[in-house]
Specification:
This protein is an alpha/beta fold. The chain has a single domain (3-212, 274-301), classed as TIM Barrel. The chain has helices at 37-49, 65-75, 103-117, 136-148, 162-168, 192-198, 220-224, 232-235, 244-260, 265-274, 289-295, 305-323; strands at residues 3-5, 12-14, 16-19, 54-56, 82-87, 89-93, 96-99, 122-127, 152-158, 176-178, 202-205, 281-285. Strands 3-4-5-8-9-10-11-12 form an eight-stranded parallel beta barrel, surrounded by five helices. A two-stranded antiparallel ribbon has the order 1-2. Helix 1 packs across helix 2, helix 1 (37-49) runs parallel beside helix 11 (289-295) and helix 9 packs antiparallel against helix 12 (305-323).
Length: 325
């Protein structure tokens, strides 16, 4: 699988990384429903077997559960893949999330993550969300100190604005940004991606398939049958009216386009994200082996200008429809 250098670091990431949000299971604000840990471990091992060289996780994904599962999987793997995790989202109790970016909190978090992941160093350590906003500078300075101490290799951020990246960069080099980016969510194209390109900050985008919306399985009945403890059922705006109906219309067009070009919609969504020159790698979530076997093919797809233009036309029609809501 092709790789791309992450910012100014010495890490070369495969164009697709394995995301473990769903692997964290249920019981928290943004869980994806109950998961089979053994199936999750098989999925991680399959991803590595197929050539993916990095895994993205976070304490927040099941409040340490995803990290524990990743650690167990890596203990069964002979290689040494790149591991990225995050800090700043903590367990407030009863499945709810609280935030803290205080130095003492992060120092405690990193030790917990190292233990759960069964590693001596974390390759990419990211501030999960810039919240509380008044603590981001203290947090990033702490990450730089952790890098100097050899606890982490790269100090990175997630979900930061350009203003926030500028504010923390005075403490040290930002290796990478992890922003949401998909055909449905292009907000980062205006200023964030250009800023990252200009400053050689790597971009590892998440939700290229928009949490499962940009896949062939999507339909009204699929939405209705989502598990009650799947956060998307109530919280993902594309699956709620008034956005659901126009979104399904768009998905039908994209499905037909994908079929004509003999690729899966999920592959189209991932390859579209990877077509942006600022993007280093895209995080692709999977809970079963067959899911990663299918989506990994997207790393080899290179969309033509004509294909990209046609996709733009579909989205122009979608935006026009949304204005009438």
């Amino acid at each position: 699988m092709k790789t791309k250098k992450l910012g100014k670091s010495d890490l070369n990431l495969t164009r697709i990384g394995l995301g473990t949000w769903a692997i964290g299971g249920s019981g928290w604000d943004y869980g994806w429903g109950s998961q089979d840990d053994r199936e999750s471990i098989k999925t991680i091992l399959k991803a590595l077997e197929l050539g993916i060289n990095w895994i993205d996780t976070a304490f927040a994904y099941g409040f340490g559960h995803a990290e524990e599962v990743v650690g167990k999987a890596l203990s069964e793997w002979k290689g040494d893949p790149i591991v990225a995790t995050k800090c700043g989202l903590l367990n407030a109790g009863d499945g709810h999330v609280r935030t803290s970016l205080k130095r003492e909190s992060i120092l405690e978090e990193v030790e917990g993550s190292l233990k759960r992941l069964q590693r001596d160093v974390i390759d990419i350590y990211q501030i999960h969300w810039p919240s509380p906003a008044n603590e981001i500078e203290e947090a990033f300075e702490t990450l730089i100190d952790l890098k100097k101490a050899g606890k982490i290799r790269c100090a990175s951020v997630s979900n930061f604005s350009v203003k926030q990246m500028k504010a923390v960069s005075k403490y040290g080099e930002i290796t990478s940004l992890q922003p949401p980016y998909s055909m449905l969510d292009k907000r980062v194209e205006d200023d964030i991606l250009p800023y990252c390109l200009e400053n050689e900050i790597g971009v590892i985008s998440y939700s290229p398939m928009q949490s499962g919306v940009l896949t062939d399985k999507i339909s009204r009945s699929w939405v209705e049958n989502l598990a009650e403890d799947d956060w998307r059922k109530e919280k993902l705006e594309y699956l709620q009216e008034p956005l659901l109906t126009p979104t399904l219309t768009l998905i039908d067009k994209l499905k037909a386009f994908s079929a004509t070009n003999e690729i899966k919609l999920s592959g189209l969504a991932i390859s579209w994200v990877l077509s942006h020159k600022a993007v280093t790698s895209a995080i692709v979530g999977a809970r079963k082996e067959q899911q990663i076997e299918e989506t990994i093919k997207a790393s080899a797809i290179e969309l033509t200008k004509e294909q990209l233009d046609q996709i733009d036309n579909y989205f122009a029609e979608y935006k026009a429809e949304l204005k009438n809501i």
